[in-house]
């Protein structure tokens, strides 16, 4: 039940958004290119970050580079 305390978890690392050109989903409403985000959890395919809406969301790693 990791999702219940994501806001209070320590940040694993920081990543910088490099683009919002999504093929399938609309991400430009919650991500800003050039903005740095705190990674709260990570899987092989996704970063779970606190996005511009203030909520934790999972996004493909190809939107980001290490900050």
Please describe what this structure looks like.
Helix content is 0%, strand content 37%. With 67 residues, it is an all-beta fold. It has a 5-stranded antiparallel sheet with strand order 4-3-2-1-5, with no helix packed on it. It starts with 12 loop residues before the first strand and ends with a strand. The mean pLDDT is 91.
How do the strands line up in the largest sheet? 4-3-2-1-5
Number of strands: 5
Radius of gyration: 11 Å
Q: By helix and strand content, what is the structural category?
A: mainly beta
Task: Report the mean per-residue pLDDT as an integer.
Answer: 91
Q: End-to-end span in angstroms?
A: 28 Å
Q: Could you estimate the helical fraction of the residues in percent?
A: under 10%
**Low-confidence parts lasting 5 or more residues at pLDDT below 50?**
none
Main sheet, how many strands, which sense, barrel? Answer: 5 strands, antiparallel
Helices and strands, in order, run as EEEEE
In short:
With 67 residues, the protein is mainly beta. 0% of the residues lie in helices and 37% in strands.
What descriptors fit this protein?
67 residues; mainly beta; 5-stranded antiparallel β-sheet; 0% helix; globular
Give the SSE layout.
Layout: E1 13-17, E2 36-42, E3 46-50, E4 56-60, E5 64-66
Antiparallel strand pairs: 1-2, 1-5, 2-3, 3-4
